[in-house]
Amino acid sequence: MSQIPSYDRAPDCVSVRWRLGQAPWQQIPPVPGRRARAIVDNDFAGDPDDLPQLVHQLLTTNVATRLVVASHLAPGDHFDPSDHTAQNAERIVRDVFTRMGLESTDVIVRGSDARLPDRETPAPSPAVDAIVAEAMRDDDSPLFYLAGGGLTDLASALLVEPRIAERMTVIWIGGNEHDDLASPPPNAMPIEYNLLIDVAAAQVVFGDSGIPIWQVPRDVYRQCLVSDAELRIRMAATGPLGRYMYDEIAAVFRTATGFGAGPAETYALGDSPLVLLSSLQSLFEADTSSSAHVVRPTPAIADDGSYVPVAGARPMRVYTRVDTRLMLEDFFLKLAEFERWATPRA
Residue 289: what are its φ and ψ, rounded to 5°? Predict the structure, then answer.
């Protein structure tokens, strides 16, 4: 898990200050305007692959980050076995903002600390109210819901206000492999990690709502491997922010090795397709043109995590390949550009 920051000691952070919508680190100013809005939702107290995703998203100027939802993990999760993982996730997000000198903390909202009790009852939280408000805002720009963990807060918002399904697209990192597209990895969890966080919530999003879904299932987010050498040279060596993210990932390396799963030369930045698919689209005929997907009827999700075909269901995208070159190069270059501005060398 990412280290929970202590309030009695501020982290080493940059002296610069900035707000969302600005990009003072770019020597050549970006073209003004934005193409879309985004709500970022992740279980920041879990796998630290969400840290590069969050930083990447915040450094991307053509999509306006409207909310950052700090969501919960599964009960007893090995990354954080506490009963307040959404609270811990919020503290981690605020710590990241501090490390970046980012003053736009008004976008941070806490999600529920618990799963849905059933498919008909929302789990109330400040995030649910904020999600509904943003979706119902009088704004014609597309809204992407970027979900890198469980779907509790999105499902709750859909239960509270079903009309938001027509006003956003969810891009979800999660779900088992589709049998005709890929096979599970060796010794795979029977229910994919992010789906396991809240199966009922996924059942609401897939089966009980009309929200458009772009799914990045387990076999595809596992494609997002980056080498330890790349992380050391192109992330850790860029400056304090990059070193912080590397150290959080290295802690997982050490823990996994202690359980006999390592050492390894790679780590999966499995949440980063959220940035790729929403922000790094083609200019003309805008789409995720460098990645590949199939379109199929949206299935229901069974209690065991399997897919149940539904005749006549709305279409959904299932990604089969993501452009890791574009995704990782864009992240490493934006991080280096930011670090040069935030921590100038003598």
Answer: -70, -20
